[in-house]
């Protein structure tokens, strides 16, 4: 908290709380009580000078109702969430040991959008996980269409030494993994384009981060509802 307060005094307006699984945070407060992530968000929200706050990356298994309620109660918490799901198949999610089902993930999103209809949602996906069938891949495609992510990142599975999955047979040909990656990206990009079209003609509040490296005469404002989008804008 001291670091954030010092940054605010230096003119910093936005804080991004980072962690591999940031919403699993647990800390001890001065009175000995446990501070969970929802409590941390509420404390940061009250620091004078901070106008916007966000966090990344979250795990659906730890995304509690108390965190969802922060989107209802904390206006400084921007309308963006990066919440990786990885697959739309429950069997694949179980094999990945993710600890939730596709339905439980969708339930989180429904609760969030009931509170923040303008929530900008992004996610991560892995295609070609060991044993993933065509039907299971199609379940992922359907989930993407059902949820309508603003942005997502797709990765081809490759064994990582030291993980349980590394002992599983990597039985999907590389060419098929590439096909699935391209097919999933096509669906995601179509939805992104559709959502972007709805923004045309609207007025958005942005935060200028710096000078564009590609176009030095332009600034780099970041809309409050996105994680990393940069927009070209000329100073006037």
From TrEMBL:
Q: Which SUPFAM superfamilies match?
A: Radical SAM enzymes (SSF102114)
Q: Which Pfam families does its entry note?
A: Radical_SAM (PF04055)
The Swiss-Prot or TrEMBL record annotates one GO molecular function as: 4 iron, 4 sulfur cluster binding
Q: Which domain of life is it from?
A: Bacteria
Does this entry carry the keyword Chloroplast?
no
Under which EC number(s) is this enzyme classified? 2.-.-.-
NCBIfam families in the cross-refs: MiaB/RimO family radical SAM methylthiotransferase
- What spans are recorded as compositionally biased (Low complexity)? 213-230
What GO CC terms are in its UniProt record? cytosol
Q: Which InterPro entries does the record associate with it?
A: Elp3/MiaA/NifB-like_rSAM (IPR006638), Methylthiotransferase (IPR005839), rSAM (IPR007197), rSAM_horseshoe (IPR023404), rSAM_sf (IPR058240)
Reply yes or no: does the keyword Transmembrane helix apply.
Answer: no
Q: Where is the Radical SAM core domain?
A: 1-194
- Its recorded name reads (Dimethylallyl)adenosine tRNA methylthiotransferase
The ranges of region (Disordered) come to 213-236
Q: What class of enzyme is it?
A: transferase
Which keywords belong to this entry?
A: 4Fe-4S, Cytoplasm, Iron, Iron-sulfur, Metal-binding, S-adenosyl-L-methionine, Transferase
Q: Which PANTHER family match?
A: CDK5 REGULATORY SUBUNIT-ASSOCIATED PROTEIN 1, MITOCHONDRIAL TRNA METHYLTHIOTRANSFERASE CDK5RAP1
Q: Which cofactor does it need?
A: [4Fe-4S] cluster
